[in-house]
Amino acid sequence: MAKLEPEISIAIATELEKCGCSAPTNLEIPINLTTGTVSFTTPPGAKSIEYTNYLILITMALNPVLPESSQDNMECRRAPPDSQGVIYRVSLVATSKDKETMLSVMKESLFVGQEVNVTTARFLQKDPEIRLPKKYTSMVVSVSTDKVDKITPSVLIHGRYKASALMWHSNPTKQCKKCYLYGHPEEGCKATHHNCPICAGKHRLKDHQ
């Protein structure tokens, strides 16, 4: 199966280009040999939602490339996206300074209190020596994007409300899709309105005339 990755990538890119897909067509195709799952990873800067309307086409392009025993059993769909939130001043006494125990406690705490499933959790401060003398620390948790509003801008955990915020990642080349400046994503934009990258007007790019 792994040997098929280049062939699958070319087949899907060809079909996407034929139908005029404006999103990047150079998708990464990792194959899980244990489960037989074929995944599609978008290039940096591209959003998975841009391919939603092409999932049936991707399936049709994929089936002929796969072995006969695997054909017509594929259903392409978007993976549920996760977002990361940071919860401030969480008690280390309540969560434990041990990473595995902390993950278990955070999962249970947010599920019982907010009915939110935590997929991963970690300390914002990665150095255990710096965390050692402290009573509180900030925690980064990954939850389904549609559940972020349940844990921000504050969340009840261990009997107290704690301030929290959506966490986003950036670099100097990251361009915001709201103000179109570099250095931050749209999630971290502080602009009060959208800027058109063509005319600099106060409207979205799709509304440019």
What does this entry look like structurally?
There is one protein chain. The protein is α+β, with helices and mostly antiparallel strands. The mean pLDDT is 83. Strands 4-5-3-7-6 form a five-stranded antiparallel beta sheet. Strands 1-2 form a two-stranded antiparallel sheet. It is built from five helices and seven strands, in the order αββαβααβαβββ. The longest helix has 16 residues, at 99-114. The chain starts with a helix and ends in a 42-residue tail after the last strand. It folds into three domains: 2-70; 82-167, 2-Layer Sandwich (Alpha-Beta Plaits), CATH 3.30.70; 170-209, no CATH class. It has helices spanning 5-18, 55-62, 92-95, 99-114, 128-131, and strands spanning 31-32, 37-38, 82-91, 118-123, 136-144, 154-157, 160-167.
Produce a short descriptive summary.
With 209 residues, this protein is an alpha+beta fold. It contains 5 helices and 7 strands, in the order αββαβααβαβββ. α1 crosses α2.
Features:
209 residues; alpha+beta; Alpha-Beta Plaits; 3 domains; five-stranded antiparallel β-sheet; two-stranded antiparallel sheet; 7 strands; 22% helix; globular
